[in-house]
Amino acid sequence: MLDTLTLEPILMDRDGVQLAHYETGVTSRDRPSLVFINGWTGDHSIFSPQIAYFAETHHVVAVNLRGHGASDRPEQEYTIEGFADDIAWQCRRLGLKKPVFIGHSMGGTIGLELSGRHQDLPSGLVMIDSIVMPPAALREDERLKQFMAGIASADYLEFSRTSAWNNVGNFDDLSRRQAIFERYVLPSCEKTPQHVAYSALKNWFFNHDPIPAAKSCTVPIAYIAADVPVTKEASDLDRLQELCPQVVIAQTLLAGHFSTIEVSDQVNAMLDRFLAVGLSPSRR
Q: What pTM was estimated for this model as a whole?
């Protein structure tokens, strides 16, 4: 059964730009707040099962990145560093103390930048199928260039829909794959304007250097991979472990890029384990 999360966005004004987040759950001295960070052309709904599950035990905040979901979409450059600073600002405005950041796809890259850039904030970081340490050769890869051209084209919306459909794992029957696509992937994809999608993608792959943040990040880290060849090929996890020896790496079984929905039970169990054991001082 696929349930759609229904929460009302909370808007905060940052220098004239409305940044949205969703808040639920229970506050506890013994459990950290969880901050969920959506990926490229996504929104909080990709974490619907995690928000519902962890709201029973944790204070949960799910952001919508600038330009995404219910947040404003100004004409500007969209950078990993800018996204990270936005979320740090939101966390401080909300008075969050040592939250755990959980990012999907580009959201994981933002989470790493945030954890290295604002070292006082996090107590832990989880990246879910994120291209976080791309090899230098990726920038010259013809497939990436063609993808960028598609996002820049007049057929942006159709190209974006097709790309999103291809990222939904084909391990399930067609009806479930279609339901995941229509309920959780397509709506946020169609709400993300072309100028946001292109700028964010360009700056993610061509103008962002993750190494300084990785070197500065000292909190416990988990990386949850999916069974997606393109992400695996574009992610140098050996380099990530070299820079962040505290990282633990796991993989979901028979799930595509949107594993948080496709196999939410697996992802929830991994997050549960990380929160129970991975944040221990002995792991630092």
A: 0.96
Residue 107's closest CA among 156, 196, 47? 47
For 219-274, the pLDDT digits (tens) are 999 999 998 888 888 889 999 999 999 999 999 999 999 999 999 999 999 999 99
What are the backbone angles phi and psi of residue 127, rounded to the nearest 5°? -115, 130
Alpha-carbon distance of 183 to 178, in angstroms, equals 8
Contacts of 211 by beta carbon, 8 Å cutoff, 6+ apart: 243
CA angle 50, 252, 206 (to 5 degrees): 85
Residue 212: both structure tokens together: 């300084």
Tokens read off for 171: 């391990």
Backbone dihedral angles phi then psi of residue 104, each to the nearest 5 degrees: -100, 130
The Cα 136–Cα 92 span in angstroms is 34
CA-wise closest residue to 244 among 120, 124, 95: 124
Distance CA 262, CA 271 (A): 15
CATH assignment of 10-283?
A: 3.40.50.1820
In angstroms, the Cα distances linking 127 to 21, 115, 247, 271, 275 are: 19, 12, 10, 11, 14
